[in-house]
């Protein structure tokens, strides 16, 4: 058979041509059908498609995207073109089953043009490829017990404090740490040279100690993990240990620092102190010679100290704009070498916070010349993110139940800002302080935060949710499913 020029122009590589006819009147349809059949060399009585006409030569390779002629109902197509659309002949009556068959056929072959861009029903529900009784993992199960959890409602965050207490004569100093909330639900705060205790359970307060002018004023306070013993750093370089339950002084740590002790951090029985002399000292409060290690790396006052939850890593921030990550064992070595030194802040670093849900993540905040919150991988020392807050960062606290971070600020906003991590979208801003919100302390349940400011007020914010709801959000302890795990225990 001779290949028609039309076929060569459309498909030069394969002698196939497809002609789609969308004609309205019957005379035109008959004429086009006659011309197409004459050009292709086909008999009008051979089966032809309703819409798609195919021309092919025997022995030639077919195009893979064009269906085979044997799959077409050419007889029905010829009848539709010549006789099927005559309006003069009344349609033959059809049985209900035949009517249902032709309706289904119209929908399948898209013969009903009125359905174009028409609204259709929802897609069918997917069928489980693996029977539920054979699935052992929730990842392959669609049972109600393993369906996606419904989105929980957005937590309402009160914009006003629950309680405001007067804090007269509080020292407005960025480099000091004068507020802490212990595990026994007692708040310790230093006002000038006096340390006061406020019991959050009953609202009562008492005076613990007043330091004389020769040794004072108080420069830092920190509760021990037991919530009973309180460490008090002084301006004369000494550190006092008090039993808050009996209001008795237990001992005084001397000989470590030469200047005021502005930062304190407990790690079990080890009390770590940071001073204006740039030294960081580990003190074992159980023994007479309490100094058991010293970290040297800062060149100016150490104003921030935080131990990791594991107790193996210490983060320190100083007025030299530096952050150091120390290993607990390095204080015993002769070199006293830090693990990592972060130098990207451009102002003093006082705000430090270890992430509770990612052990090696540390958040840090810079002072007035920096105004940023940075996140660090303490394994590699790499900076993960940096966010410009627009104001001095004085304190940082992680939410123990949600992926959120709370920051307190100085000039110019003096606000508390709640951030969603890791997007760092501002969730809420708590305003009310008229001076720098220098000091932050979380409650034992992790839901309420106390903030103290140079405006001589102590404010309590329910920023991290209701304690009862927070307890429900805590995951159940994991069960050790390892076989014979009991055999690994040391007796």
UniProtKB/TrEMBL annotation:
WD repeat placement: 211-252, 295-336, 430-463
Source organism of this protein record: Linum tenue
InterPro entries: Cdc20/Fizzy, Quinoprotein_ADH-like_sf, WD40/YVTN_repeat-like_dom_sf, WD40_CDC20-Fz, WD40_repeat_CS, WD40_rpt
Domain CDC20/Fizzy WD40: 165-461
This protein's name: CDC20/Fizzy WD40 domain-containing protein
An annotated Gene Ontology molecular function: anaphase-promoting complex binding
Biased composition (Basic residues): 146-158
Similarity remark: Belongs to the WD repeat CDC20/Fizzy family.
Signal peptide: none
Biological function: Component of the anaphase promoting complex/cyclosome (APC/C), a cell cycle-regulated E3 ubiquitin-protein ligase complex that controls progression through mitosis and the G1 phase of the cell cycle.
Alphabetically ordered keywords of this record: Cell cycle, Cell division, Mitosis, Repeat, WD repeat
Taxonomic path: Eukaryota, Viridiplantae, Streptophyta, Embryophyta, Tracheophyta
Superkingdom of the source species: Eukaryota
GO biological process, one term: cell division
Disordered, as annotated region: 135-161
Cellular component aspect of the GO annotation: anaphase-promoting complex
């Amino acid at each position: 058979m001779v290949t028609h020029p039309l076929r060569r122009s459309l498909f030069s590589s394969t002698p196939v041509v497809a002609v789609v006819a969308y004609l309205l009147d019957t005379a035109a349809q008959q004429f086009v059908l006659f011309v197409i059949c004459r050009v292709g060399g086909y008999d009008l009585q051979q089966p032809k498609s309703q819409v798609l006409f195919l021309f092919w030569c025997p022995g030639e390779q077919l195009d893979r995207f064009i269906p085979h002629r044997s799959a077409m109902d050419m007889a029905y197509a010829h009848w539709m073109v010549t006789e099927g659309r005559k309006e003069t002949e009344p349609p033959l009556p059809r049985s209900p089953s035949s009517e249902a068959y032709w309706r289904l056929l119209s929908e399948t072959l898209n013969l009903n043009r009125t359905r174009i861009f028409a609204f259709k029903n929802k897609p069918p529900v997917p069928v489980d490829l693996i029977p539920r009784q054979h699935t052992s993992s929730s990842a392959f199960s669609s049972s109600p017990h393993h369906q996606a959890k419904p989105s929980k409602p957005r937590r309402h965050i009160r914009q006003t404090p629950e309680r405001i207490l007067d804090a007269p004569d509080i020292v407005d100093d960025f480099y000091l740490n004068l507020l802490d909330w212990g595990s026994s639900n007692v708040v310790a705060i230093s006002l000038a040279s006096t340390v006061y205790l406020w019991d959050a359970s009953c609202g009562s307060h008492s005076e613990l100690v007043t330091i004389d002018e020769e040794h004072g004023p108080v420069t830092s306070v920190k509760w021990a993990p037991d919530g009973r013993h309180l460490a008090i750093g002084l301006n004369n370089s000494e550190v006092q240990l008090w039993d808050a339950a009996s209001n008795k002084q237990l001992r005084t740590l001397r000989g470590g620092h030469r200047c005021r002790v502005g930062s304190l951090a407990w790690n079990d029985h080890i009390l770590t102190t940071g001073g204006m002399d740039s030294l960081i000292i580990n003190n074992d409060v159980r023994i007479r010679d309490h100094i058991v290690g010293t970290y040297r790396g800062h060149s100016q006052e150490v104003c921030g100290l935080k131990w990791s939850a594991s107790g193996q890593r210490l983060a320190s921030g100083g007025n030299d704009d530096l952050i150091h990550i120390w290993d607990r064992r390095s204080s015993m070595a002769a070199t006293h070498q830090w693990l990592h030194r972060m130098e990207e802040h451009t102002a003093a670093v006082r705000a430090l916070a270890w992430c509770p849900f990612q052990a090696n993540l540390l958040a840090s905040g810079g002072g007035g010349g920096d105004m940023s919150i940075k996140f660090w991988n303490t394994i590699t020392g790499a900076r993960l993110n940096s966010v410009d807050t627009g104001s001095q960062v004085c304190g940082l606290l992680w939410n123990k139940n949600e992926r959120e971070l709370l920051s307190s600020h100085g000039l110019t906003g003096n606000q508390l800002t709640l951030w969603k991590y890791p997007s760092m979208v501002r969730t809420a801003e708590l305003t009310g302080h008229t001076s720098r919100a220098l000091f932050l302390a979380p409650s034992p349940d992790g839901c309420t935060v106390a903030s103290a400011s140079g405006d001589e007020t102590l404010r309590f914010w329910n920023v991290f949710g209701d304690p009862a709801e927070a307890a429900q959000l805590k995951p159940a302890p994991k069960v050790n499913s390892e076989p014979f795990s009991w055999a690994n225990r040391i007796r």
